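Ticket #467: bound-state structure for manganese (II) ion.
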Amino acid sequence: MSEKEKSAGELLKEKLVYKKKSAFEKCPDEKEAAFDYCEGYKKFLDNAKTERDATAYSIKLAKEAGFVEYKLGMKVAPGDKFYYDNRGKSVYFFIIGSEDLENGMAITAAHIDSPRLDIKANPVYEAGGMAFIKTHYYGGIKKYQWTAIPLALHGVVTLADGKKVDVILGEDDDDPLFYVNDILPHLARDQYAKSVGDAIDGEQLNLLSGSVPFDTETSEAIKLNLLKLLNDKYGMTEYDFQSAELCAVPSYKARDVGLDRSLIAAYGHDDKVCAYPEITAILGLQNPKKTVMSILADKEETGSNGNTGMKTSAFCDIIADISASLGKNERIVRSNSICLSADVAAAFDPNFAGAYEINNSALINSGIALCKYTGARGKSDTNDASGEYVAKIRKIFDDNNVVWQSCELGKVDQGGGGTVAKFISEKNIDTVDVGVPVISMHAPYEVVAKLDVYNMHKAVAAFYTAE
Ligand code: MN
Ligand code: MN
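RESOLUTION: The complex was predicted; output attached.
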């Protein structure tokens, strides 16, 4: 239909009404690039299940791209590319820009911890002819989802002599797995009577870890045999669990979903799906005007506390020391800085449509989701980005053909959540939440759409280089 044939109402509608477009409509030629990009993302997922794994793997990629280690107090100069390794659990990548630092930095912050089962300090026991390892869940999980699935152990054990031993067990095809038992349906009458949230108790999340006794004379010989095998493999004793940091994570590899291969199922999309685009965007950057920083934070899933979480002073310490090195005022630098809090959004799911308000939900394949605010109920506990700042970000995305949409987590009174945004904005930095929509968030196996992942990369790259 030509312009002339359109009615006045249709023309007015085109002018006034906002119509969300999918990535297929807006960028019809990008499917192949997005699918290619996600091959690297899947590799990242398989190598970055915990914050320690993600830190080590991303530093390896950064070193290959010419980044060098930064220590507080170091001299910096325009063009320098650094990584700051915060205790092997969080990392800050940054490139010193050519323009005045007091014009502000462009910062993005994702988190690299994901919900999982952490091993307790006194974990090993035997019962019913089996040896178990007790766990304490980390982050917001639906506990019933963590039974009867393949689990792997990741982490470190620091032995009595101070030697640190790395543990990854359950990822190779011929590795043994760990497993949390569930009750058979035939005997589940009591369990069926409970609410879903109580169907599995925290103290039932015990890892099945063996069943062979060391001998038939010694008491607790199955536990003893498990300890012997751990000693043979890692040189550890039961006492060494006290100074261990071990996590049970799903032993799933990232895989394509759907015959069209448009989706990816993996453990830990929240928030590796924002961490990876940050890494690819900053590693691909040469001599930016603005000083840019990509943060991969730990502890988001438990409230961002501790010295590796986003509340750590390490964040401001780095900015202060860069500022001092360049003879700039740190407070002015922060006040003029801008930030994308890069964290996932809840994708609208038609199977649970009642939890969402469709006009303000993120749709799969409709690009990255911008959440002006998160929180719960009456916007409790949220960073609520200013409309002016959202306008600035919207323009950057539109100017660079980034497919994006705005969203809320779900229906107003349905629940809520938070991100690191408020911990950055309270440092006097304009901050807004932007991230990839995820299906089945916090499940052991989550799903995202490849086109959305690719648009996250485009968004971060555009943000770093915006005027
Ligand atoms: Mn998250
Ligand atoms: Mn989360």
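RESOLUTION NOTES: The longest strand covers residues 116-127.
TICKET STATUS: resolved
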